[in-house]
Design a protein that fits this description.
The complex is a heterotrimer of chains A (301), B (138) and C (325).
Chain A lengths: L2 E12 L2 E12 L3 E5 L6 H9 L6 E6 L8 H6 E4 L11 H11 L5 H10 L13 H13 L5 E5 L7 H18 L2 E5 L3 H7 L2 E6 L2 E7 H7 E7 L11 E7 L3 E7 L10 E4 L2 H10 L20
Parallel strand pairs in A: 3-7, 3-8, 5-6, 6-7
Antiparallel strand pairs in A: 1-2, 1-4, 8-9, 10-12, 10-13, 11-12
Helix pairs in contact in A: 4-5, 5-6
Chain B lengths: L13 H14 L12 H8 L3 H13 L3 E4 L3 E4 L11 H17 L4 H28 L1
Antiparallel strand pairs in B: 1-2
Helix pairs in contact in B: 1-3, 2-3
Chain C lengths: L1 H39 L2 H7 L5 E3 H25 L5 H20 L2 H4 L6 H37 L15 H20 L2 H23 L7 E6 L4 E3 L6 E8 L5 E4 L23 E7 L4 H30 L2
Antiparallel strand pairs in C: 1-3, 2-6, 4-5, 4-6
The chains are: A alpha/beta (301), B mainly alpha (138), C alpha+beta (325).
Chain lengths: 301, 138, 325
């Protein structure tokens, strides 16, 4: 599988603090990837680096094998919907579409007008008078009508009400089905992520903590429930990510190497939400593909 | 044509839910050989789920020989799961009703009945699986 | 890109056109009136009659001076009002230059426009070129208009080489305008916010303009000296637009009797000791920049500001490409 996006030990500094450091990850072509992590973990920084709005201070970022920069070709291949979906408030929707058509050689005007028509967004409405959901939809249309190979979305639905959020995700999934676009979108909403994403990137404190296919990650992780067992005395269960105990019972969330045969454990599947939360709660746990090289230096030190 | 519904609270994987719903429809005769399944794009958009998930479900159904994909056209049902035994449902249901009368007469309330059925089901199925597994080895 | 530039800046263009129209509406009638009066009152004829010499007959000077004073009483206020025009180039810097980049970043729309299929360098180049050319055209129109309008005032009031007067006419306003716009754009790439960019533009403009005008301009070229006796039948020519840097009255031995003034005792009194004649041998010493240095000085100062503008624009584009990240 080739990568749409790949970073190697990527670092970006803001003044003395590192917004991102030692961040290595990849997003395969054709995947719908979720970028998950707490606020300030570096999600926006990563996306901005990928689209060339920021330049790395360390390491490198590659989009379809090339470093994003002031390259027209690459800019045309990447669609970006920024956080809070900025639009020129005094432009009408039609003018925003015209902006897209003037600034992108690969622009598909029919696609843009068609989608806006389906969404019942009036073309003569000023962007400043659109609802949040409509703004997000217009921003999405602007990003996809240039027919990008990679679509980067920075918390596009964070500010939307549930209905607008659903409509946005519906539109996004329709686009993925139509165009086979690779998507990387950052989100807090693990429910959306679970339904829409087949690739997961968890970032925490500026570096990637989990990178991998959702199916594989789910297959590798299990919840084990068994009789009260003392800490550290579980054998053959793989890496323990989270444990909780009552006086009778021990519950573990583990990353397994294979099937668990020990009869004491009642084994059940995990949801993506369990998995993400377990990793975010444990700063030392990581699930990275291949030879895992965790950064030796501390973040922000 | 059927319409998929997702249970957001279910722990069951999305593609499994899709498979189950197709099979359910096949079982009750809502889908018959030759019928078309909803297009991947439509399912992805209406449920706001990853199209790959839909593809995966359809591929699984294809492997099981229930449906076949025709390039550029869509996915069509190949065989039905409705069995003549379903005709006997009426008789089975009457048996169950008679059994339930006995249970309530014995003083169990509704929750206890459900718990009894669930634990029994689980036990029987586990035994079943165990037996099948051994047969497989033999 | 051109369409986008026009779409985003058409309001600014319209505002500038309205401003120019207002200026035309005010300056054309008043200018015509002033030019007519300048001819009709005999001011122009009298001043032209003085010729080119540094010292001319005191009688003629005195005669012209009274005509000039009459014109000044009628139109001197116009000249003072015209000094307001000194702020016009700054306005271009504040309202065209400063928001160009800063507003995009402040409102976050840079994330929209810089991720389209146009490189940031091209975006910057087209926008900056468009705004700079527009500013240039407006500045040329404005400078030509004011230069014409100031014509009579230049010859009757202060020399057009003097502070403020020099600054609103000729080609210097074009240089100031380009500089202000470039400074505004550059400031926007530094501050990334509109108000601070405007403040930086204002401060930068004032900090450079005032010292260069006050300290630099009088020394662009060595001043000339004119020495003439107090008691004399000739007086300095008031028609050649010289800019007096310093003057004073000295006694025979060369010590200063009165600073910042010139004295002419005419018609020559019986005795050099008469009132206000400072005694025998007293003379005036005037240090001045000749009026015909106006254009060389204009070229020099305009050149300096145009070069500064070019440097700032270069830095602004570089920052857009490399540092705005």
């Amino acid at each position: 599988m080739t990568s749409a996006l790949e970073t190697t030990d990527l670092g970006k500094r803001y003044g003395r603090d590192w917004g991102l450091r030692g961040c290595s990850l990849r997003v395969p072509v054709g995947s719908v990837a979720a970028l998950v992590g707490p606020n300030g973990a570096g999600k926006s920084t990563l996306l901005h680096l990928a689209v060339g709005l920021l330049k790395p201070d360390e390491g490198e970022v590659r989009v379809f094998g090339k470093a994003p920069g002031d390259s027209r070709e690459l800019l045309e291949q990447v669609g970006f919907v920024a956080q809070d979906t900025p639009l020129y408030p005094d432009f009408t929707v039609a003018e925003l579409v015209k902006l897209g058509s003037k600034l992108n050689r690969t622009w598909d005007d029919d696609l843009a007008v068609d989608r806006l028509g389906k969404l019942d967004i009036p073309l003569d409405r000023k962007a400043g008078r659109l609802s949040g959901g409509q703004r997000a939809q217009v921003a999405l249309v602007l990003a996809i009508a240039k027919r990008p190979r990679l679509l980067l979305l920075d918390e596009p639905v964070a500010a939307l009400d549930p209905l607008a959020r659903r409509e946005f995700m519906q539109a996004l999934m329709g686009i993925v089905a139509d165009q086979g676009t690779t998507v990387l979108h950052s989100s807090h909403l693990l429910g959306d992520v679970e339904r829409t994403c087949d690739w997961l990137v968890v970032v925490r404190k500026g570096s990637a903590q989990v990178v991998g296919s959702v199916d594989e990650l789910l297959a590798e992780h299990r919840t084990l429930i068994g009789p009260r067992t003392r800490e550290g005395e579980y054998s053959g269960v793989g890496t323990v990510l989270r444990e909780s105990h009552t006086d009778k019972q021990t519950t573990l969330l583990v990353r397994t190497g294979g099937p668990i045969h020990h009869p004491a454990w009642n084994v059940s599947d995990v949801t993506l939400e369990d998995l993400v939360l377990a990793y975010l709660a444990d700063p030392n746990a990581a699930a990275l593909p291949g030879p895992v090289s965790l950064p030796q230096r501390g973040v922000g030190a | 044509m059927i319409e998929f519904l997702l249970d957001g609270h279910s722990r069951e994987a999305t593609y499994m839910q899709l498979i189950r719903q197709v099979k359910q429809a096949l079982r009750v005769g809502m889908l018959e050989p030759g019928d078309q399944l909803p297009k991947v794009r439509e399912v992805a958009e209406s449920l706001a789920i990853n199209p790959n998930t839909v593809l995966k479900a359809y591929r699984q159904l294809e492997i099981e020989g229930l449906v076949e994909g025709r390039v550029g056209v869509g996915t069509f049902v190949r065989r039905s799961l409705s069995r003549p035994t379903l005709v006997t449902h009426g008789a089975l249901r009457r048996d169950l009703e008679a059994w339930l009368d006995r249970v309530f007469a014995a003083g169990l309330d509704e929750e206890e009945v459900v718990a009894l059925v669930e634990t029994t089901l689980r036990a029987v199925f586990q035994e079943d699986r165990f037996r099948q597994g051994r047969e497989g080895i033999a | 890109m051109i369409w986008l530039t026009w779409r985003q800046h058409r309001k600014q263009m319209l505002a500038a056109l309205i401003g120019l129209a207002v200026l035309l509406a005010v300056l054309i009638p008043t200018g015509l009136k002033m030019h007519h009066a300048f001819t009709d009152m005999g001011t122009e004829r009298c001043l032209n009659g003085l010729g080119d010499g540094s010292l001319v007959g005191a009688g003629k000077v005195s005669e012209c001076q009274s005509v000039v004073d009459r014109f000044q009483r009628a139109y001197g206020d116009y000249g003072r009002a015209a000094l307001l025009l000194i702020f016009v180039p700054l306005l271009a810097g504040l309202f065209w230059g400063a928001p160009l980049v800063a507003r995009e970043i402040e409102s976050g729309t840079h994330r929209l426009v810089w991720t389209q299929g146009v490189t940031r360098a091209r975006w910057g180049a087209v926008k900056i070129a468009a705004i700079t050319v527009a500013a240039l055209l407006f500045a040329i129109g404005y400078a030509a208009l004011v230069s014409w309008w100031m014509g009579p005032l230049n010859r009757t009031g202060t020399s057009r080489l003097e502070f403020l007067s020099f600054d609103v006419q000729g080609i210097a306003p074009i240089g100031y305008t380009l500089f202000a716009v470039a400074l505004g754009i550059f400031a926007g790439t530094v501050t990334r916010k509109v108000m601070p960019a405007m403040a930086m533009t204002l401060v930068g403009f004032v900090v450079l303009r005032i010292p260069l005008a006050v300290l630099g301009r009088p020394n662009f070229q060595g001043a000339k000296d004119l020495k003439y006796p107090v008691v004399s039948d000739t007086a300095p020519n008031i028609g050649n637009g010289n800019w007096v840097i310093s003057d004073g009255v000295y006694d025979r031995a060369g010590s200063l009797l009165a600073g910042d003034t010139q004295a002419v005792c005419w018609p020559p009194p019986d005795s050099p000791d008469a009132d206000g004649c400072y005694g025998a041998g007293a003379y005036n010493l005037v240090s001045y920049q000749p009026g015909d240095r106006f254009w060389p000085f204009q070229y020099l100062e305009t050149g300096v500001y145009v070069l500064l503008a070019a440097g700032l624009l270069y830095l602004a584009i570089r920052r857009l490409q490399r540092q705005m990240t």
